Amino acid sequence: MQKPFMRIPYTGPLPPPIIVPRNANTTTGAISALTKFLFAPSTPRLSPAAGTHAHTVLLTGAGVSVASGLADYRGTAGTYTLNKTYRPIYYNEFISNHEARKRYWARSFLGWTNLHKARPNNAHLAIRELGKQGLDFQQSLSKLNPQWATFLAEILETGALDSEHPDERRKRGLKTNPDGDVDVPGAPYTTFKYPACPACLASPPILSDGSRSIVELDANGAWSPRSTAGVLKPAVVMFGESIAAEIKTAAEEAVDNASKILVIGSSLATYSAWRLVKRAKERSMPVGVLNLGGVRGEETFYGESNIGNDGSLGVRCSESADKILPLVVRNLELTATTD
Length: 339
What we know:
- The protein is an alpha/beta fold.
- The chain has twelve helices and six strands.
């Protein structure tokens, strides 16, 4: 398979975090600063382009789910930190390469067991805005791949998927990635079958040349490589894929209609995330970051914010969200009842 020219951003160590305010270098100080950041009224320094709504927009990353047993990308036990050769599937590979799709769906099939077991941690519960969604795709993939269902059962029998710790997983021959997929060296990925897009199967789309596409199934009911369309793609943005215009607009409007932004569990390594915080900063919105370790370009967000600032004008903490956020929520509740 040809290696894409695209480079994955910031796989190496990021600079140490800039703690703002200075007393946020302790758990107690971080809780106090975050409470003041979230409870502070809209700053009069907001630019005319900024929203007038007195609420905070949250931008969360993979780090929020580490306490739920899921891997992150750039943390101390993250995939890029422990597995220097890891490379996710790229959008162009997924769209154009049948074998790459087999490998993608097979690894997702194996990893779904752990994703299905994962539960919201204290950070999720403290945030409360996160919605719930469920998709029982493992059952349908089992029907298409009975031999893989047996393979999965054998892996479960060994207990290799019982441990959430990356080191334990590697000792048992597995690699778990942030997107939830599991890589088993030597697994027969080329034999894996995946379903066709049901909407395309019901109504094959028109191709760019004006002809109607062909969407066929093989004898087992899986997508056939004779098809000219109908590739089933998960609702995620892959590396190298453009974000849909309506999603980009919705994210920008969420920032514009808020008075401050709080980043939780993200190093902002991808530009699509970093630019939203940059957008908020350009509107003179206070920026808060709760993330273990460094964050891309955080010096851009914190300059004079540390002068006479108790957290109201900006906060930067390097703490675990699942430990800090519940205490911040409790502080906010107490503050609200005493005012």
